[in-house]
């Protein structure tokens, strides 16, 4: 006679789940959590300091002073550029129509040497006033400086 098959003894549920999915994960100690939070805070403060100082160290700034439109094909733009002494600068100047579409564009070179007599000015010749004539393809109602950047002696952007 044969005896019925006996089933193997089953393992407790906790053991079988641990074998299948792994044991419980250990949590981080409070000291490790504080160290991670301190490191993240230091990185965040360093990033904010870098962002705030990198923008303020820009050596070229510009300010629109005015514009005029003597006729339908020309716009004159007046602006000031402030840069470190001895720095050559290029500025992109644009003329706009009533719908803010660009109808004229010109890149202007501002040499590194300060104009004569500017050494006695309050800022030592750092600020230079410019008047630029921009040809337009249709009547313009505004003229502005789009951007300015420092260049090396060959005209390449620095």
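-> sequence recovered:
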């Amino acid at each position: 006679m044969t005896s019925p098959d006996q089933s193997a003894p089953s393992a407790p549920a906790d053991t079988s789940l641990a074998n299948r999915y792994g044991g419980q994960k250990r949590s981080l100690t409070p000291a490790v959590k504080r160290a991670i939070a301190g490191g993240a805070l230091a990185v965040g403060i360093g990033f904010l300091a870098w962002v705030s100082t990198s923008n303020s160290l820009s050596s070229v700034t510009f300010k629109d002073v005015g514009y005029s439109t003597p006729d339908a094909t020309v716009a004159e733009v007046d602006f000031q550029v402030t840069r470190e002494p001895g720095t050559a600068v290029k500025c992109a100047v644009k003329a706009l129509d009533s719908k803010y579409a660009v109808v004229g564009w010109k890149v202007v070179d501002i040499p590194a040497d300060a104009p004569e007599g500017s050494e006695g000015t309050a800022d030592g010749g750092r600020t230079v006033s410019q008047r630029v004539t921009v040809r337009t393809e249709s009547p313009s109602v505004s003229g502005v400086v789009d951007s300015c950047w420092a260049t090396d002696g060959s005209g390449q952007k620095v």
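The radius of gyration is 34 Å.
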